[in-house]
Give the backbone structure.
Amino acid sequence: MNQLTADTRPAPEQGAAQDASGLDALLDPGSLAVIGASDDPNRIGGLVLKLALGARFDGPVYPVNPNRPRVQGLAAFGDIRKVPGHVDLAVIAVPSAHVKAAVEGCAAEGVRGVVILSAGFGETGLDADRAAQDEIVAIARAAGMRLLGPNCAGLANFRAGLVASFHPAFHTPGNRAGRIALASQSGAFGGLAHHSAALMGLDLGTIITTGNEADVRIDEAISHFATTPGIRAILAYVEGIRDGAGFAAALEQARQARRPVVMVKVGESEAGSRAAASHTGALAAGHRVSDGLCRQHGVIRAQSLEELFSLGYAFDRSPLPENDGVLIVTASGGIGVLLSDEAARRGLQVPPLSEEARAAIKSMVPNAGVHNPVDVTGQVFSDPDLFAKVIGRLVDEPAFGSLVLQTGITSSVPGFADRIAAIAADVRRRRPDLPMHFTGHYSADLRAKLEAAGAACFAEPVHAVRAIAALRDAAVAFARPPSSAPVPALSLPAIPQAPAEGDALALVAAAGLPVAAHRVATGAEAIAQAAEQLGFPVALKVHSPEIAHKSDVGGVRLKLANAAEVQAAAAQMRATLHSHGIDEENTKEFLAMRMESGLAEAILGLQRDPVLGWAVMFGLGGIMTEALGDVTFRTGPITVAEAHRMIREIRAFPLLLPQRGQPGVDLDALAQAIANLSQLGAALGPDIRSVEVNPLLLRADGVLALDALIDRTPDDQD
């Protein structure tokens, strides 16, 4: 069972803010102006002002409207320059044609931040609108003013009584400032999230929607939340990443601050990927690279909005587990099996009870299932104290890092709800750092009592276990050292404009990967002589930068035993290549490589992602890569420890371990090869798209690169 670190996150009121992103200007202003304020609450400017006043913002609120002396009961001003007091934050809700003038006025008055709700800028795809967006950004930056949007739904900081948005979902009486922050590139989602989260019992404290991200990006919002006191977890809704390095840095900042990030990432279909000459390029679909980035920095991926808020709720209510052992107690054997299956799927442990514990439970409930999950049976409804007795006997066992209690429907048994609440209070007293997830259909009153005692409540039993797994994953991620490695000084060979296999092998050898002995020569006789120098048997390959996949056109022969066989194979290979329409220039040179044996073959790749930068790929060769796409990615350069994590992520990992008396592959050498390849990207020029080693021979005592490819295909030739 894995030991995890205890939850040492600072209490909400502790810690000092370090606003490296400069977003305090937007989220913690002392005063607010609404430019385009309206008396009509059904208009955007009217709704913004209504929501701002309804949020009970502590500072002054100034409506700006040149046509009315008063708006919604407040004195109005014709221009931002006529506002009598200093304005920290201005919300701009005017047609796009008037936005530039409004931004210029804000810059002239020293406004610290502006929220531009107006649409009609870069999101239209028109050059004129994009240029107009660039103009307002230039004005803001020259004035040192942060700009959110345009084309966003604004923001809300309920902890400061601030709503700077037009989304009607924020007009909710009794908004409570929670400890969860949300960053969303979608404006509509920001409001929907506030409403949906509240229905699930999760109170969001801060919401920011970034829209076009002309200035403030979502990674800056994550960075801000990572250092803001009082935030326990960060939810993110991401459609696209504009600054890969900044995004990765923000995620790592959150990890090191022990702030869990739960993310929904959309727009990652295979239709958005582009195939390149290498397998790496074909496999490097956006979702695989971004998923690797999330694994690298401890991000919890959510596959639905329900899961996003459910996990956010768990991080809000639960400490992190000390280990991955789960105690499951139920009133239903069937649900117990369901929960234990889900725990196994998510890599959690369900440790069996000791003999002494089993005997103790049997003495209480003779018909109980006592192996964990513990089935108290339906007898609990006639003896409501059984849950308390069973849990009281087991909860102090150190093998259990969390508790899941499935109680079923409690309302029909008199006094049952109070007994369930008492269990939560007792567990919290005895084990303050134990996550306890109760699942059942609870009244609002019972749910409030359970949450007050430190329990998280789930109607769906499986969700209780899913949340435990997310807590475990966060604890493991927080305990890891950083995954990024320093870039070594590499002395690389010159890469010709049209690189062939020999050039690629020389490149990966310079990066520190072992390469099988080989020779390159022109003509059948010369390559036969070179093969003799290597020693037999050898593999023979056509050596041409124009032929990426040599075996597809008959350009590979294996296990050639002597010089005569090599010479004959070379002549025959040329004829075969000519029959495929390959010209004389691309059939005259050959590469001979000494045949080597191993236990398995892998594929390593280094792919330049247009946003996230260099991504390193690992997978096993053959059908696992070609048909099943069983590969994993990281953005480099990475450490050897992170490379070991990659190796263990693929589904085929058990094939690399010792099997039936056969040795396993050298995992340390494999991890070193992945790490070395990941560090190569920093030394490559901008015209290289990918480098691939395929196959990499895996042995019990090392690895050997048997083939390599450099892809220099220009983007417009995909």
